[in-house]
């Protein structure tokens, strides 16, 4: 391992440790100060929106530029492997979505709910989530599966287009600029994790936690497995990188994704 690789690994380890520490401190802060942590909600929402501001354009630019700059033979190999990975992730998401309900016990009574608190749940259209009829709407609402599909289609269409060199260069420059924004935001990820965790722990009443204990535990376990086991393993199989290296490099982002779950 070279000095540069060792230095990058140490930075990733330090950021991951800081993220876990921020998550633990945020939970302790929420449990200690309780409802007073409600004032941290705007800070947590602002941080998540800042991450989305950089992530969504970066996804579009990097996918379109990366696929659009490929030659025909390279594109075929990428399409076969990338298509399998993408379809696998979609299938995994759909299976988890429908199977998660079986992790919950059957609740015969729910006396702790009031009749006035019952609201009609929002219906989720899976087709609109994965296939964008309006790409601009998908971009504005942050529907990543639809955004990824649109970016792949646009990048694939650019493969056979002539005189695309200037556009690919512009996309590469934009990708570098957005990477700079992401690099800066990753340095302050522990603060965002602290705000989100403190607000979540402080605003959840003990009575509600007692009644929903099994549901919360099942939800947390499922998210832990999905965030720190399934997704890194899929990335390791698709890229050839080691599972440990992926955790080192993406530990902070994974902790943020886990703590920001709603």
Q: Can you tell me the residue ranges where pLDDT is under 50 for at least 5 consecutive residues?
A: none
Q: What is the share of helical residues?
A: over 70%
Number of E-type strands: 0
What's the rounded overall pLDDT mean? 76
N-to-C CA distance? 40 Å
How large a portion of the residues is in β-strands, by DSSP E? under 5%
Helices, by number, come to: 11
Largest sheet: none
Characterize the structure shown:
With 262 residues, the protein is an all-alpha fold. The protein has helices at residues 3-33, 41-68, 72-99, 126-130, 135-141, 144-159, 165-187, 189-203, 206-211, 213-239, 243-259. The longest helix is centred in the first third of the chain and has 31 residues, at 3-33. The mean pLDDT is 76.
Summarize the structure.
This protein is mainly α and 262 residues long.
Blueprint of the fold:
Layout: H1 3-33, H2 41-68, H3 72-99, H4 126-130, H5 135-141, H6 144-159, H7 165-187, H8 189-203, H9 206-211, H10 213-239, H11 243-259
Helix pairs in contact: 1-8, 1-11, 2-6, 2-7, 2-8, 8-11, 10-11
Q: Which keywords apply here?
A:
262 residues; mainly alpha; globular
């Amino acid at each position: 391992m070279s000095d540069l690789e060792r230095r990058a690994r140490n930075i990733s380890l330090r950021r991951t440790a800081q993220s876990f520490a921020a998550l633990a401190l945020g939970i302790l802060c929420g449990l200690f100060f309780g409802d007073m942590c409600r004032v941290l909600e705007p800070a947590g929402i602002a941080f998540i929106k800042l991450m989305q501001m950089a992530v969504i354009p970066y996804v579009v630019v990097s996918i379109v530029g990366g696929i659009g700059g490929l030659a025909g033979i390279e594109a075929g190999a990428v399409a076969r492997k990338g298509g399998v990975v993408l379809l696998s992730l979609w299938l995994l998401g759909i299976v988890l979505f429908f199977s998660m309900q079986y992790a919950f016990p059957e609740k015969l009574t729910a006396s702790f709910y009031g009749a006035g608190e019952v609201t009609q749940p929002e219906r989720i259209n899976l087709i609109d989530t994965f296939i964008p009829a309006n790409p601009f709407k998908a971009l504005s609402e942050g529907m990543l599966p639809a955004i990824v599909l649109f970016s792949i289609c646009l990048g694939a269409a650019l493969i056979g287009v002539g005189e695309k060199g200037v556009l690919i260069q512009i996309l590469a420059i934009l990708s570098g600029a957005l990477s700079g924004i992401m690099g800066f935001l990753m340095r302050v990820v522990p603060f965002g994790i602290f705000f989100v965790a403190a607000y979540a722990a402080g605003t959840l009443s003990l009575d509600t936690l007692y009644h929903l204990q099994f549901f919360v535990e099942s939800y947390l376990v499922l998210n832990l497995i999905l965030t720190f086991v399934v997704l890194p393993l899929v990335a390791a199989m698709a890229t050839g990188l080691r599972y440990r290296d992926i955790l080192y490099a993406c530990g902070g982002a994974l902790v943020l994704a886990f703590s920001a779950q709603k």
